[in-house]
């Protein structure tokens, strides 16, 4: 933090090697290290300033997923950093406490860059969240989990061959960059900040003994109150913060079969990886755990939804690498929302493939899914939502503060292969 209160970060993207599999050296890419990147942490109200260098052999970008950020600093496909070049985005953090993330977004190569290891968390803190009695000691009872799937060649390199229709699917889960991860937990309860950092895999997460956990936050911040659950589904790019009591013996965090796929052609679910089951992380409790407080009964006050205030309604049909029948064109602006106005977007997956839908710059709320109110885990702030084949999802969203007649924001399917193939569009906030 400098004398004017600006919080500075330096990131360098470079190639290295990582022991993802025991005893095997795998060539990977990372920020400030061989794989993934440091957790960026900043408070609401603080100005952050980045000095980002690209030491990779090809151009990349750094996008702030879920972050409310001026369009010219969004790090989408228009903010290319050439090899050897630097990029210095800066903005004042103005959003609630949340687990956000950053990853490359070079048009056509996002999946490859993320698969090779470029991704990190971006945690926002604020006074309201700090005042709550939640596990919050980073690395002790507040643990980041970046969950990804990988395939390896015989010589231990990342296998980038044979993408499926949802992208590169791996047969090995790496959690925070390593396979077979475990975590020693010294407290009664642990908070897991979970990111689905995979390119195309859906996870239906729970514990092997089906124990309950409390979900406390979705993509863009705390839920109104903790939601007791035994499973949480995350499509690529989505996050969930959960708090679980560890008990006396080890327990496995597991990805169960992802069953929310009515509408996928019969027999096709397996080819999208939806039937796969993986162990993600073993929690190993200490013999004499430190006490953890009971969870607060309320967490945050979410604004009431008022669909009648919407200034515009827009429709998005997802089908076959396209949105509304078109592929991404870097030179085409698809629409221009007005700054500080509310809109309602209706997203329909008219395909028989699973998709999801992500919007840059803003956090939205889900009005309804197929006409029904969203379940607790989808009732808070979201920036990415799973779209089951056949589903119709209505979102309400608002683009505030940053009008820019030159630089667009993106919206897209966050299955990274689909995004790379052009299932993306762009809008200017005017
Ligand atoms: Cu997580 Cu447009 O990206
Ligand atoms: Cu994004
Ligand atoms: Cu898709």
From TrEMBL:
* The keyword Signal belongs to this UniProt entry's keyword annotation: no
* Keywords in alphabetical order: Metal-binding, Oxidoreductase
Q: Which domain of life is it from?
A: Bacteria
Q: Which GO terms describe its molecular function?
A: copper ion binding; oxidoreductase activity
The residues covered by the Plastocyanin-like domain are: 16-128, 319-430
UniProt lists the family membership as follows: Belongs to the multicopper oxidase family.
Q: What is this protein called?
A: Copper oxidase
- Name the species this protein comes from: Rhodococcus spelaei
Taxonomic lineage from the root? Bacteria, Bacillati, Actinomycetota, Actinomycetes, Mycobacteriales
């Amino acid at each position: 933090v400098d004398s004017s209160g600006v919080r500075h970060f330096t990131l360098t993207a470079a190639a290295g090697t990582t022991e993802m599999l025991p005893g095997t050296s795998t060539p990977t890419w990372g920020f400030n290290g061989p794989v993934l990147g440091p957790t960026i942490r900043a408070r609401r109200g603080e100005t952050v300033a980045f000095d980002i260098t690209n030491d990779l052999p090809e151009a990349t970008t750094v996008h702030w997923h879920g972050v409310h950020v001026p369009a010219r600093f969004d790090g989408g496909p228009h903010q290319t950093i050439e090899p050897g070049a630097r990029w210095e985005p800066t903005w004042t953090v103005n959003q609630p406490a949340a687990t956000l993330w950053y990853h490359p977004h070079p048009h056509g190569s996002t999946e490859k860059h993320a698969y090779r290891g470029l991704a990190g968390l971006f945690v926002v803190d604020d006074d309201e969240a700090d005042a709550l009695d939640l596990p919050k000691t980073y690395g002790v009872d507040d643990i980041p989990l970046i969950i990804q799937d990988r395939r390896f060649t015989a010589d231990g390199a990342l296998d980038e061959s044979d993408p499926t229709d949802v992208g590169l699917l791996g047969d090995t889960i790496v959690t925070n960059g390593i396979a077979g991860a475990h975590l020693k937990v010294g407290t009664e309860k642990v908070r897991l900040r979970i990111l689905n950092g995979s390119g195309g895999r859906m996870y239906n997460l729970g514990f092997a003994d089906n124990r309950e956990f409390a979900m406390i936050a979705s993509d863009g911040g705390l839920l109104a109150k903790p939601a007791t659950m035994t499973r949480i589904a995350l499509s690529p790019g989505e996050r969930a913060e959960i708090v679980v009591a560890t008990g006396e013996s080890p327990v496995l965090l597991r990805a169960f079969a992802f069953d929310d796929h009515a509408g996928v052609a019969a027999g096709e679910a397996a080819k999208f990886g939806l039937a796969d089951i993986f162990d993600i992380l073993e929690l190993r409790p200490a013999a004499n755990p430190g006490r953890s407080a009971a969870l607060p009964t309320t967490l945050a006050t979410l604004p009431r939804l008022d669909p009648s205030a919407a200034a515009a309604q827009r429709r998005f049909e997802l089908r076959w690498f396209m949105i509304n029948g078109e592929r991404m064109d870097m030179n085409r602006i698809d629409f221009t929302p007005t700054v500080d106005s509310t809109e309602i977007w209706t997203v329909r997956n008219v395909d028989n493939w699973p998709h999801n839908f992500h919007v840059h710059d803003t956090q939205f709320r889900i009005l309804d899914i197929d006409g029904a109110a969203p379940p607790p885990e989808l009732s808070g702030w979201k920036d990415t939502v799973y779209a089951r084949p056949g589903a119709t999802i209505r979102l309400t969203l608002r683009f505030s503060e940053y009008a820019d007649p030159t630089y667009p924001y993106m919206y897209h399917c966050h299955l990274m292969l689909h995004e790379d193939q052009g299932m993306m569009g762009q809008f200017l906030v005017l």
